[in-house]
Amino acid sequence: MDKRDIKDFTLEEIKKAVVEIGESGYRAEQIFFWLYKKGVCDFQEMSNLPQAFRSKLEQDYYISALSLAGKLSSADGTEKFLFNLGDGNFIETVLICARNRKTVCLSTQAGCKFGCVFCASGHGGFIRDLSPSEIINQILFLQHRLKHKITNYVFMGMGEPLDNCDNVLKAIMIMNSKSGMDIGARRITVSTCGVIPGIRRLTDLGLQINLSISLHAVTDNLRDTLVPANKRYPLKKLIEAGEHFTKKTGRILTLEYVLIKGRNDSLKDAAELEAIAGRLKAKVNLIPCSPVPGLGFQPPSKKDIDIFMDKLIQGKIKVTRRESKGRDIQAACGQLAGRLKQKDG
Ligand code: SF4
């Protein structure tokens, strides 16, 4: 039997496997402690496990780690890490430091199949899903190798998290496990372009997790062109799924809205966005688009952004404006990995 990556398994799964080989279930908690609280990469370092058990684990499992292929630091404190997956593919993880927060932006797929027009990951095409361990290892590298004290975790890097739902939900369970990383669900945000079946599964998980929907347009016609997933998951149904999420979890939804000059930044767009956000009792996060080389999108002027924002505020919508972080290091998802693949190709 091929060795399996032990970080691909939840606590419950490890417990079951441990009991099957005749050990006590609490050994799974000890394994989780070493993997996630101590960040060890060698079963022999798990010093409170019997030697014979460590050797048995070594026979059946291995402990993966990501290898760093590059790092860029922005003048504004944002750091971008490029990880080599070991199969010729690369993913990016971004660490955003703002005020007293350190937010890690996690990738969930190598590439992406959804093709949002302003996104570099979408333009590079889809390569493959990340395993739970490849998702978790992005955090472990920053926490244990680089000693960063991360406060917030967002699934907003390369890939659509809810298109890799099994592995992302498993990673969230490992992150949330008290015996492991012990990350409170309220500090985790899943961002989706609108994959409705995934939103429903996340809702049913029953965790106090945050959901963020990348809306970017308020009519199906425009959203079909900016966020092609809309053709499969149209606005009306997406809004219903969002409503179901807020009702069932009691969590406040965030609507992400990338402002693109001349495309979705009119007062009419603002009025419709106000209506949708009002219905969902959602916060709106306005993001002036990052110019992506070759795509031709530009952010609106500061004055136009202010007018758009004021319209929402007048409608009593809670609205924030996210400044583009790390522009000097191309921190929008997929840009660095995309360039690296172009060079390789
Ligand atoms: S914005 Fe997200 S879902 Fe859309 S193409 Fe980029 S990575 Fe994929």
Report on this model:
With 345 residues, the chain is an alpha/beta fold. The protein has helices at 11-20, 26-37, 51-60, 120-123, 132-145, 165-176, 196-204, 220-226, 235-249, 267-280, 302-314, 335-344; strands spanning 4-5, 61-62, 67-73, 79-84, 90-98, 101-105, 109-111, 126-129, 152-155, 188-192, 210-214, 254-259, 283-288, 319-321. It has twelve helices and 14 strands. A ten-stranded mixed sheet has the order 3-4-5-6-9-10-11-12-13-14, with helices on both faces. Strands 1-2 form a two-stranded parallel sheet. It has a two-stranded antiparallel sheet with strand order 7-8. Helix 10 packs across helix 11. The longest helix has 15 residues, at 235-249. The structure holds iron/sulfur cluster. Iron/sulfur cluster binds at residues 112, 114-116, 119, 121-122, 158-160, 193, 333.
Compact description:
The protein is an alpha/beta fold and 345 residues long. Helices cover 38% and strands 19% of the residues. Iron/sulfur cluster binds at residues 112, 114-116, 119, 121-122, 158-160, 193, 333.
Element layout with pairings:
Layout lengths: L3 E2 L5 H10 L5 H12 L13 H10 E2 L4 E7 L5 E6 L5 E9 L2 E5 L3 E3 L8 H4 L2 E4 L2 H14 L6 E4 L9 H12 L11 E5 L3 H9 L5 E5 L5 H7 L8 H15 L4 E6 L7 H14 L2 E6 L13 H13 L4 E3 L13 H10 L1
Parallel strand pairs: 1-2, 6-9, 9-10, 10-11, 11-12, 12-13, 13-14
Antiparallel strand pairs: 3-4, 4-5, 5-6, 7-8
Helix pairs in contact: 1-2, 5-6, 7-9, 10-11
The structure holds iron/sulfur cluster.
The site of iron/sulfur cluster (SF4) has 12 residues, from helix 4.
